[in-house]
Design a protein that fits this description.
Structural class: alpha+beta
Distance between the termini: 9 Å
Number of strands: 6
Number of helices: 2
Radius of gyration: 17 Å
Shape: elongated
CATH class: Alpha Beta
Helix content: 10-25%
Amino acid sequence: MKMVTAIIKPFKLDDVREALSGIGVSGITVTEVKGFGRQKGHIELYRGAEYTVDFLPKVRLEIAIAADQVDSVVEIISVAAKSEGEGKIGDGKIFVSSLEQVLRIRTGETGLIAL
C-alpha cells in the first residue's frame, strides 16, 4: 500500500478529483495549506500599500492506494494539475511513501480491504 501526497494549486482541485474518479480512486483527503518553494511569494497592493505575501495558498491531497495503482495515480495528478502549455513554477509536487498498515475503524478491517 502507498500514500500519495500532492501539493497543488487550489483551482486545479476539481480537475484532479474528476480525473482520479475516472480511474476508480474513491477516497481523497483534502487540506487547505500555505507554503512556498521556487515561487517565493509575491507582492500585492491593498488600499494603496504594498505588502509581501510569503506563503501562497495551496491544496494538499492525500490518497491511500494499492501499490499497483501508484504509477497511474501519479500520472493522472501530474497531467491534471499542470498549468497550460509547458507548466509553470508553483504547479506543485507529488510525494509517494509506503503505508505499513491501514485499519477501518468502523469494521476493524485491515490492509487493502480497509482502503
